[in-house]
Amino acid sequence: MIRLLLADDQALVRGALSALLGLEPDLEVVAEVGSGDEVVAAVLAHHPDVALLDVEMPGLDGIAAAAALRQAAPDTRVLIVTTFGRPGYLRRALQAGASGFVVKDTPAAQLADAVRRVHAGLRVVDPALATDSLVAGDSPLTARETEVLQAARDGSPVAAIAARLFLSEGTVRNHLSAAIGKTGATNRAEAVITAEGNGWL
Amino acid sequence: MIRLLLADDQALVRGALSALLGLEPDLEVVAEVGSGDEVVAAVLAHHPDVALLDVEMPGLDGIAAAAALRQAAPDTRVLIVTTFGRPGYLRRALQAGASGFVVKDTPAAQLADAVRRVHAGLRVVDPALATDSLVAGDSPLTARETEVLQAARDGSPVAAIAARLFLSEGTVRNHLSAAIGKTGATNRAEAVITAEGNGWL
DNA sequence: CCCCGGCCATGACAACTGTCATGGCGCAGT
DNA sequence: ACTGCGCCATGACAGTTGTCATGGCCGGGG
Hints:
The structure is a homodimer of 201-residue chains. With 201 residues, chain A is an alpha/beta fold. Chain A is built from 10 helices and 6 strands, in the order E-H-E-H-E-H-E-H-E-H-E-H-H-H-H-H. In chain A, helix 7 crosses helix 9. The termini of chain A are far apart.
């Protein structure tokens, strides 16, 4: 019997995945949580063999939760299940100690298998996504550039970003300019979009 | 036996929902499709009683598919199941003839009930979302303004938008300015974000 | 009929944005 | 010690954006 924990902020999806996996005779969902913050506590309480974590969650995201689990419960293996197959997500997930990475448009029949493989100590990675991750490469953005781009996501003008980050407006413009150049964009908005698409934010 | 059709582009979610609903003794999933374009054909082929449609799908979105179903198979009731509880989505879904509207963070246990209610001819609408929809009101944007804002989503400069829409740059700026004013934004990017959040695009 | 509102356009102005050159500070690697 | 690089800052310039006034064209409602 493989014991599972599910973490996904969408209750309906969480419940549905639970139903799906519950159909398998050798799988058993022992805990469900709706935010990344609850993951560690739930794992310590229920000792699942495998934790299925969504990336997009309130509080700690799935990748951060995976990293926290590596510390708190190294025996629990992590399978990331996410909507977006962004190259940067995969890379960061693996660095955080995840054993598998599955996108939500893989066929439902394959999920149970992925869980079993992860439980058996194997790595599970969508091959198409892995190659994407290779070609896209690691984020070229420095820490500050990333931070400034994040602050620019909501369309704030330079002045607001500068105030929020306690920087001068000129510095913000420089970082943005660098980010625009590195992302191949011509534009702040474009830079945000491509950085997000690559999982760099 | 209530016969169901599921439409969701994420195969894993689709399969999981199928498993969840399949647990109910009085429900039966008779068809699953992964895009809005396939909905009408699948409904005509399998005659489900209720169609569960996701809004975000390639091809026809769930709302457009609901409208198409009203024409092609008026006996099949539509329950929209979506990630985003955007006021405009709800309004447009109801106008398109949907009988119910459920957000993906409602508890899994309630979905089957929602299906039964819809099948019984009742309307199912999240009350919190309904009030949101009332306060947010209908889109204040004119057709052109909407179109221009859509074209601005990817961060294109005015010149590119003008070229794509065969308008003069000045006109595009005027429409954008109007949209910015109506959305309460100070900014093109902000205007895009709030318009999207309200389901106006 | 006349007026209002949506739509298109032009032109002008102020504000914001993106780029570049330049310089200082600190930290790592050679 | 020197070099390279990230980070912060300033100032200047050209290009883009947002606003406003103005005007023409059309269709619907009073």
